[in-house]
Amino acid sequence: MTHNEAPRDHGTSTVPGAPASPHTTTTTTDADAAARAKRISGYRPLHVPAELREELTPLVRAWVAMAPAAYLVGVERQLSMLTGLLVWCHGEGLALRPETVLREATLERYVSQGLTGAPGSSRTTTRSTLRALAKGLLPKQALTPAPATHGAVRMKPPYTGKDTAGLLALAAAQPTRLRAANVTALLHAGLGAGLDGTELHQARGSWVTTDGSDVLVHVRGSRPRTVPVLARYASPLLAAAERVGPDGWLLGGRDGNRPNRVGFLTASVTTDLDVPRISSGRLRATWLLEVLRAGVRVDVICAAAGLADPRMLGDLFRYLPAVPTVELRAALTGQAAQR
């Protein structure tokens, strides 16, 4: 769907206690309800990994079936778009519950970060379609007229050292060489350079270069910058870029218009119950925490991360060790600089 459609007149909800429709006062016939139920029960998503399809299909059917008819602006469209949203949320490690998936901040993140390859008109349609579903399922949520600001989204928890080691081992243990290479590239770009989900989706082999001493990621897009890769992730990331070539997608694949490259890749990973899910947000938070622990100045971190506002870094301060009084005094009195 690449254009907006006006909300269809589906009539008053047949669900007891559902909110009244803002668009219509007509009634929904039994035939309409039966046809809608048949479309929902027969829905089966395409282009979703089999193991994830089995988990998400019942959720998609149930959520759309629970929505009052007045908020269904196109059953097939909402089924399809809700599937895409759930795949992305799964890849981000979010809880697959309506109050999490359909909250306004999540929807806006998905539209801006998960649909980067889609035309603007398609993103607009997706936003309005999912917001209509959110109004039906979460009537107490007051949606703002304009998109929410992303600054309100909190930083995801970073991975522990054990988590990181497990993820790297998991990447190497994937059943095919291609998937292992793509997952390895994802982990090293996130852990080594802090690329976010949008940047990981857009990254090409040409983004990664070396000047002989450092491996660098030249981020394109709305926040262009050059990020030196942390040393232990540098060589594998450079090898991943050389594997796909300058014009290849760093995370693999041939379809440049795929709306959620990261989500589809993470959903395809053969998992280990002892290892947490791969989340681009958590990879980025882990990188940010590592550079904070290394004592890099906050303004330098913001420049490297493409952050206009450093306040989100505050979510990571609780993972930092307490500063000894001697070190604090030396830093504030200038004694550390004199040593």
Could you explain how this protein is built, in words?
The chain is mainly α. It is 51% helix and 4% strand. It is built from 15 helices and three strands. The chain has helices at residues 30-41, 50-66, 75-92, 98-101, 104-114, 120-137, 161-172, 177-193, 197-202, 231-244, 261-268, 280-293, 298-305, 325-333, 335-338, and strands spanning 208-210, 215-219, 225-228. A three-stranded antiparallel β-sheet has the order 1-2-3. Strand 2 (215-219) and strand 3 (225-228) form a beta hairpin. It is globular. The N and C termini lie far apart (64 Å). The model is unreliable at 1-28 and 146-152 (pLDDT under 50).
How are strands sequenced across the largest beta sheet?
1-2-3
Alpha-beta content class: mainly alpha
Query: Outline, from the CA principal axes?
Result: globular
C-alpha Rg (nearest Å): 23 Å
- The beta-strand count equals 3
Element pattern in H and E: HHHHHHHHHEEEHHHHHH
What average pLDDT do the residues reach?
82
Question: Quick recap of the structure?
Answer:
This protein has about 350 residues and is mostly helical.
Please name the defining characteristics of this protein:
339 residues; mainly alpha; three-stranded antiparallel beta sheet; 15 helices; 51% helix; globular
